[in-house]
Structure formats: structure tokens, C-alpha cells
Write a structure and sequence with these properties.
Blueprint lengths: L9 E11 L4 E6 L24 E7 L2 E6 L5 H5 L5 E5 L20 E3 L5 E10 L4 E7 L5 E5 L7 E3 L4 E3 L9
Parallel strand pairs: 6-11
Antiparallel strand pairs: 1-2, 1-5, 2-4, 3-4, 6-7, 7-8, 8-9, 10-11
Length: 174
């Protein structure tokens, strides 16, 4: 399946991780590279429902940014936002350069084996702290499986033709 034009869609660029301190600050996990790039989109951030999130970056602690959110004045209010994904409209992002892509563009792509046989579709790309993983849904069984997103496991990503290649996957068929 070749992806259509998703320029009107929303793209997650960060997530509120937890409260920080007692005055309503939050720790923010940025999906941008470098992580401070999320600040360029402060005026366009929204949650999954489309509600604007007025956020200002105020510092950094290790790999997380610190931020204040308009209307959030105490720790309880900040903590209630933990886990909130932050999105921007896709059209605000620059077009990826040749050989680059946004993980969001992988969702729905065919998954092929080394013989070019389609056996699954990409349903998610995540990072749980130990590196990027691709979640695929096996066509035959409907089950999902995770694979490390690296060049050894996934040597080819072809957005234009709508597929990724997984190198000799050990797929659970049961």
C-alpha cells in the first residue's frame, strides 16, 4: 500500500513525561533532533483532540526539556498531563531530504522479506528507551511483532514504493 498525501495530518513531536517541581513545570520528551528543535513549534502545539497547548521551554534536565504550560500552576495539574502527546500539523515540518523520512510515513507500509514477499504491514514505530523499534502486523495471523529499527534488521525503507524490507525475520506464525 502506497501512502497518500498526509500533509493535513498531525505529527507527534513530543510527549509530556511528568511534573517537575511544585510550580507546574513539566518534563518534556522531545522527538525532534536535536531535542531543542521542538521550541520552534511552541506556538503550534496541540494535543490529540486538537486543543492548543501553550508551552514554553524553560530548561533541560538530561535528555528531557523543562517547560511551563499556560494555565498550569501546580504540581497536581502538571502531573495530570503526564503522557500527553504533543502534535503539530504535518505541513509545518520541512520536507525530508533524499534518503530521509518521518517515522509517521512508515505507518501502513508493506513489510517485505528478502524474497520481496509481502507478509505484514507497519503499524507503529516506537522508542521505549533502548532504541527505535518497528511494530508490524502479520497478515496471516493478525498478530503483532516488534523488530529493532537498525540497518541490519531493516536494510531498506522505500517510502515512494510503499514498503520496508526486513532481513530474514523470525516471524511467529502461531
Amino acid at each position: 500500500m502506497v501512502k497518500g498525501d498526509n500533509s493535513a495530518s498531525l505529527v507527534a513531536i513530543g510527549k509530556i513525561a511528568s511534573a517537575h517541581g511544585v510550580r507546574g513545570q513539566v518534563k518534556l520528551l522531545s522527538y525532534t533532533d536535536p531535542i531543542q528543535t521542538i521550541a520552534a513549534y511552541e506556538d503550534s502545539l496541540q494535543d490529540a483532540s486538537g486543543k492548543k497547548v501553550a508551552l514554553k521551554i524553560s530548561g533541560q534536565v538530561k535528555h528531557l526539556l523543562l517547560a511551563t504550560i499556560e494555565g498550569v500552576e501546580d504540581r497536581d495539574a502538571a502531573q495530570s498531563l503526564a503522557g500527553t502527546e504533543l502534535y503539530i500539523p504535518r505541513q509545518l515540518l520541512p520536507e525530508p531530504e533524499e534518503g530521509e523520512f518521518y517515522y509517521d510515513d512508515l505507518i501502513g507500509l508493506e513489510v517485505r522479506d528478502s524474497a520481496s514477499k509481502v507478509f505484514a504491514h507497519v503499524c507503529a514505530v516506537d522508542n521505549f528507551g533502548a532504541g527505535d523499534v518497528v511494530e508490524i502486523k502479520i497478515i496471516e495471523t493478525g498478530k503483532t511483532q516488534l523488530f529493532t529499527f537498525d540497518e541490519k534488521t531493516i536494510p531498506e525503507v522505500n517510502i515512494k514504493e510503499g514498503y520496508i524490507l526486513i532481513n530474514e525475520p523470525e516471524v511467529e506464525n502461531a
